[in-house]
Structures are given as C-alpha cells and as structure tokens.
Amino acid sequence: TEHAMKKIQWITGNNFTVERGQQQIEDLISTWKVHESWLHWTEFLQEEELEYSKRYHYRVCWSIPTRRKPIPRATASVYFVIEISKTKPATSPVEVFFTLESSRLIHRPEQCQFREKWLKDIIENKIIVMERF
C-alpha cells in the first residue's frame, strides 16, 4: 500500500560510528514524503553515557527557503536518538527514535509515518509567536 513504511536496516552496535549514525538518519529521512521545497541539514549534538546504554543525539533542522526569502523566518527541528544497548549482544541493531521540537511524544520510525504537516505546524506556530511581539 501507499502508506507502507520503508524499513531501514539499522546498523549493529558493534559497527556504529557517529558518521554512520548520521548517514542512517539521512537514509530514513529520504523515505519520508516531504515536498522537495523543504531543505534540511543534520548535525551530531552529543554522546550520552547511561547505565545500560549509550545514546547519540542528532538534530535535523528543516526550512523552506525561497528566492524572495532565502533566509527563512523560522525553522523546525527533529531530534533523533540512536541508542546502543550495553546489555544486548553487540550484533544487535541500534534503537532509533525521534521527537519533534516542542513535543515530548517519542516516535519510533518503524511504528509511525512521518507527516510533513508536523514541520509546517512548528514553523507556523513560531511565526505566530514572532508576529505577536
């Protein structure tokens, strides 16, 4: 069906690097249905050491620049976490989840279909706030 999600073969913990993690996020984003006018850039933020896992944090910043406004008024960020378990075998795939800026809801790529509307809503809300001031 059209709504079937493309599966990403996530890297195993023993093969993980920050760069490979970033590439896998890019691979995931390439499966999302967003209009070609959206541009994004991805950056690694930090590594977090936890008792039972290591987490790698990334940010993907989205905007729609135009000829008239090459510097967009607002951007929308999607925050990714790639988690490597310390208790599972090193050959286990990493866990991946993401949250949207200004939301606490945690999304798992294999369980939800990304919606372009989420990015639009973030940007529209920011513009509304800016216009009030």
From TrEMBL:
GO annotations of cellular component type: cAMP-dependent protein kinase complex
InterPro entries referenced in this protein's UniProt entry, alphabetically: AKAP, AKAP_28
GO terms for MF: protein kinase A regulatory subunit binding
Coiled coil: none
Pfam families in UniProt: AKAP28
PANTHER family linked: A-KINASE ANCHOR PROTEIN 14
Protein name in UniProt: AKA14 protein
Organism from which the protein derives: Ceuthmochares aereus
